[in-house]
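hey m, so remember when u said the tokens were messed up on ur end? i reran from scratch. heres the input so u can diff it against urs
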Amino acid sequence: MDGFLVAFAVSFGVIFVAELGDKSQLMALTFATRFKAIPVLIGITIATSVTHLVSVAVGVGLGASLPTGWISLVAAVAFIGFGAWTLRGDSLTDDEERKAKRAGGSAVVAASVAFFLAELGDKTMLATITLATQYNWFGVWLGSTLGMVAADAMAIVVGRKLGQRLPERVISIGAALMFFVFGAWLFVEAVPEVWGPDAWSDAAALIDDRVAGWAAVLLGVLGVGITVWLRGRAHRARGERRLEVVRTPGSPAWWARLLLLVAALLGFGAPLLVALGVLEPIAVLARPGVAVVGAGLLLLGFAVVAIATLQLGTVWRRSATEAGAAVAGGTEPGPAAAAAARRPVLATGGLHSRVRNPALTGLIVGCAGMLFISPTLLGVLAGVLILVAVQIQARAVYEPGLGSALGAEYDAYRSRTGRFLPRLRGGEEPGAEHDPDRSRTH
């Protein structure tokens, strides 16, 4: 009985959260605009029951034929992949939306067929297979079925009202985090089963100061390399859209760049000296657990920088396309078109919808991660310089420049966003605030 309850609870929770913002909820909403809610829910229940029964059968078959340790390891990787899939987002294809809108006859039959076809190969079906390799099959089947039906029912009953208040991206991120946490949980449990009960202790013993130093350097180089490459692509799309920034010696932009350069030299030099045995790390922080947390922070920080850069590139490409169309259509005269092509464009979607400087926030987090992997006094100094440089770049370069170029548009954006973290309450921040992620000029 305990096995059933655990399987039911885990499966219900995982599938329910996974369905939030999924295309099944979009289909449920679409069907609900044409049919009554109860027949639609009956159709969803039938389709889900059949789909998840097949998934459970596949999962049980795998569980009986493969070693449990390796199953847990593969399941961990699968759930992390599901988390990435959820972060990417989901949407109805044109064919799926057309079927949902034009389905005729019985609502139960129409919904059953449409949802069955839509769920084949979907991440919730794959997640159910994965769960069935780990837990009681009946609990997984019942929990996953009811979890999906409950999520779709919520979409029908309160989805429209919630959609007006809760950002869809926030819901997707919450679902993705659950997948990541569950994947990490499975991974931690799988390692001792695959490599022995002392696997984690043996792995920790391998992470000495020099290994941690090399790891910090290699991960840092990887993060910076990818960021520079993405930034180059984004800046090519920017064209002539640049802030008018003074870069003479002694100017804020000059100081910000100088401090970033010195911080980079210290930030990479400190773990390199540790790796070579020249410098000793701070003893109280030189722990395998701290190094693992630092690696996670470093990857998270540079992921934020990469996502923010990609979003800027998208906005710049779109604005360039629109400017070209305006010139080709003759809607703007030559001088006006040239001025519009040089005017900065404000990014207000994605990470920029809540934070004006997400790339700078990611930079701070990534540098903190490097410091935790290989903690040294030189690294602490590099961190302080990074914080000072970022503050100068945001407060004295980006924000004044964008405020001057965009005027009221930027003031309105500033009033609803935070500089480095999401704003917790309304109202404007004290001091002049202007966005950095709108025009990367360095």
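this time it looks ok to me. Confidence is low (pLDDT under 50) at residues 426-442. if urs says something different then somethings off w ur setup not the seq
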